[in-house]
Design a protein that fits this description.
By secondary structure, the protein is an alpha/beta fold. Helix content is 41%, strand content 18%. The protein has four domains: 106 residues, no CATH class; 110 residues, OB fold (Dihydrolipoamide Acetyltransferase, E2P) (Beta Barrel), CATH 2.40.50.140; 157 residues, Rossmann fold (3-Layer(aba) Sandwich), CATH 3.40.50; 158 residues, Rossmann fold (3-Layer(aba) Sandwich). The radius of gyration is 33 Å and the shape is globular. It binds adenosine-5'-diphosphate and magnesium ion.
Length: 712
């Protein structure tokens, strides 16, 4: 069953429900409710407790209450300050009195409805003002003399005697109308839901089957704890969240298994190139690098394709680990692709990889979107014959027409800039090549479990030796001269400097102008320094030339827009000035700062802000001054920005949940993951007879979202 087919069949059914005409369908659609399934997941925002009537003396402020009372007095009043008319009805029981107030009304109607002596059932939110309590615009039911109250109370389940849902609405819909429709729809259709989670698991976790959980979530049974409902901690919501997470994690378990089941390369570690490289390197690998490389080699030697995420803070030395892995693949007669998100980073990797590969008599080439046609043709031809061992490039590598002879390893740098799709495209360029994705962004555990749940994780948690943490200061624009003095001091010692300007969009002229002007300004301040300007609108050859000049120390100061953000490595650069630092995000500031502090000498970062900035900006700058720890910074970033914007995760392919929240429900996520992975293993990856339904439902939910197609 495909997602599409089931969606349309659910949609048809929503129209068939009696009482739902075309007008209602339009309103529902506005709320995102198009199918029966959508409707069942359209859960209450909150609840009103109408289980019991209370005595007036026991009414609680700020709650919706329900009570029986008699009209004691009624009439129009004038408010003291704004001279507005209001209508007030004083009601009471044998314990106390309370005032009902209307601010908009038709007098004759109220007079007629609330004569003195009338018995009423009153429903509404109680407000407390000092000693007086009142209810504004209450809902009321008239009780006739001699009426059997208990019976009355039970006669309308949409009004009394229970906990009532309060639904999110859209204009044109009333709460009562919603309740009426949902009261019919939910019990009727909940049982038709394919709820397939194993009973043992639900029992173990004290959870309900999905259909029961949804039903109760809409119409909570009388014994439900209102406090739990209010806090979203009731067993019904927890069960729904678990259900969502379980399917997600089960899918990830299968994906990982699917990868494990496919036949990939089983490399052997020959040491033909890796050993000479290790001997040539000017440093020894750190223990963390060695551990991580060991994990990667294990994967590469195994017959299933590697699917590994390599995480390490800016400057932790991921590149050399990637190079070692590349050499293992090349030793086994296969080719390697290295994909980077920007031209400059690709160029940098190319320089780096070629430097070492040439020493080993291996061939490394660069491919990017504007490589001249003739050169490109040659490169592609040599790639196809296998003459090229390692190809570095941007997205250009992912295009059609790029064919490897035998791609053994794909490396993607700065993974969070690419989507899951691109990972897939690169994989398709070979026959189940090993994949190594690298990221400098520490991702909180719960996020990474859903984002990269199908990848194994290696972490470089240690910096190469001799790194001094970068000393960071925050200056206002008027204090810029202090920063300039430090900059001059570094130049005097033969070091180089970055001066960074924000460029919101590469097309924005004004920012470019600012950077160009600032460049002139700097020339004034540092008349003997050689200054270069790097920005996004230069041609690639121009950019390369400038970077090359900076790398070879023909430039002292590099003025740049954020194009240098990712991966640039010039150890002799020891100081960075960031102008308009208040405009940058935390992750970006951290990445930028990571460009200095690479040479072992003391390094500095000066954050220069204009006079006015927001409270959030102030917090960001304070965090930067306070710590160099990438993980601390990521946590602060998550705190300041909230999970939705952190990392732009939506773009990175984070699934949408109907009910579950990755921030609120982390505990449930961990349990669901544990259970789903264990269940997958027990059922031979859903190939046992009892898991047929679950498997179908899994495919229905995952289809169109992430690619499960490779799994048999
Ligand atoms: P990142 O993890 O940010 O990609 P790089 O791989 O660019 O970091 O490494 C940063 C710098 O550290 C490079 O100049 C690299 O040569 C150097 N480096 C890497 N590993 C070590 C090590 N074990 N000892 C000393 N320097 C190292
Ligand atoms: Mg890097």
């Amino acid at each position: 069953m495909t997602q599409k087919a089931s969606t349309s069949c659910y949609a048809a059914e929503l129209q068939q429900i009696s009482g739902i005409g075309p007008k209602l369908l339009v309103l529902f659609k506005k709320m995102g409710v198009e199918t029966i399934e959508d409707a069942l997941y359209h859960l209450p925002l909150r609840y009103e407790d109408r289980r019991q009537m209370r005595k007036i003396s026991r009414l609680q402020a700020d709650r919706s209450e329900i009570f029986l009372a008699r009209v004691l007095a009624a009439g129009e009043q004038q408010t003291s300050h704004r001279r507005k008319q209001i209508y007030e009805v004083i009601v009471g029981d044998d314990t106390a009195q309370i005032s009902l107030k209307w601010f908009h009304y038709r007098k004759s109607w109220l007079q007629k409805r609330y004569p003195v002596g009338q018995l009423l059932l009153v429903i509404g939110e109680v407000r407390s003002f000092g000693h007086t309590r009142e209810i504004h615009h209450p809902e009321t039911e008239l009780i006739a003399a001699g009426q059997n109250l208990t019976q009355f109370f039970q006669q309308d389940p949409l009004k009394f005697g229970r906990i009532l849902p309060v639904y999110p609405l859209t204009e044109g819909l009333t709460q009562h109308r919603m309740r009426k429709i949902w009261y019919q729809l939910v019990p009727q259709y909940c049982p038709t839901l394919p709820s397939c989670l194993p009973t043992e698991l639900l029992e173990k976790r004290k959870l309900l089957p999905l259909e029961q959980a949804l039903l109760n979530s809409h119409w909570p049974p009388a014994e439900t704890s209102l406090a739990e409902l209010d806090a979203g901690k009731d067993p019904y919501r927890r069960s729904i969240v678990y259900d969502e997470f379980f399917y997600l994690e089960l899918g990830l378990a299968l994906k990982r298994r699917g990868v494990a089941l496919t036949q990939g390369f089983a490399f052997t570690v020959e040491h033909r190139y890796t050993k000479p490289l290790a001997q040539m390197l000017p440093f020894r690998l750190t223990p963390a690098q060695r551990r991580v490389l060991g994990e990667i080699k294990q994967d590469m030697m195994a017959p299933m394709p590697m699917h590994r995420l390599l995480q390490g803070d800016v400057g932790s030395g991921k590149t050399i680990v990637a190079l070692m892995a590349a050499l293992v693949a090349i030793e086994n007669g296969t080719q390697v692709a290295v994909v980077a998100p920007t031209e400059i980073l690709a160029e940098q990797h190319y320089q780096n990889f070629r430097f070492w590969l040439e020493k080993l008599q291996l061939r490394c080439e660069l491919l990017r979107s504007n490589t001249p046609t003739k050169e490109k043709k040659n490169t592609l031809a040599d790639l196809q014959t296998g003459a090229i061992h390692l190809l570095v490039g941007t997205h250009a590598i992912l295009q059609q027409g790029v064919h490897f002879k035998r791609l053994g390893l794909g490396i993607i740098d700065e993974q969070h800039r690419f989507g899951v799709k691109q990972r897939g495209v690169l994989k398709q360029k070979g026959a189940n090549p090993d994949m190594l994705v690298m990221t400098a962004t520490p991702i909180p555990r719960t996020l990474s479990m859903t984002l990269y749940g199908d990848l194994s994780l290696s972490v470089i948690d240690q910096m190469p030796p001799g790194r001094t943490p970068v000393t960071t200061h925050h200056f206002s624009a008027t204090q810029r001269n202090q920063a300039y003095q430090s900059l001059q001091a570094q130049l005097n010692e033969g070091h180089q400097a970055y001066v960074v300007y924000p460029l919101v969009e590469e097309t924005e002229n004004s920012d470019l102008l600012a950077a160009t002007e600032a460049c002139e300004d700097l020339k004034h301040h540092f008349p003997r320094a050689r200054i270069g300007l790097l920005h996004g609108r230069l041609k690639p050859v121009e950019k390369d030339q400038i970077m090359q000049n900076f790398r070879t120390q023909q430039l002292d100061i590099l003025v740049a827009t954020t194009v240098i953000e990712v991966g640039i490595d010039v150890p002799n650069a020891t100081i960075m000035l960031i102008e308009h630092a208040e405009r940058f995000g935390l992750a970006q500031l951290h990445q930028l700062r990571g460009r200095v502090g690479r040479g072992g000498g003391e390094s500095f970062c000066f954050l220069i802000s204009t006079e006015q900035f927001t409270e959030d900006a102030r917090r960001r700058l304070a965090v930067m001054v306070e710590t160099n720890d990438g993980f601390r910074i990521a946590e602060a970033d998550l705190e300041i920005r909230g999970p939705g914007e952190f990392l732009g995760t939506r773009q990175a392919g984070l699934p949408n949940f109907r009910v579950a929240s990755l921030v609120r429900d982390t505990g449930i996520l961990e349990r669901a993951r544990e259970d789903a992975f264990a269940y997958a293993e027990e059922t031979n990856y859903l190939n046992s007879p009892e898991s047929v339904d679950l498997k179908n439902e899994l495919y229905r939910r995952w289809s169109g979202r992430l690619d499960l197609a490779t799994i048999g």
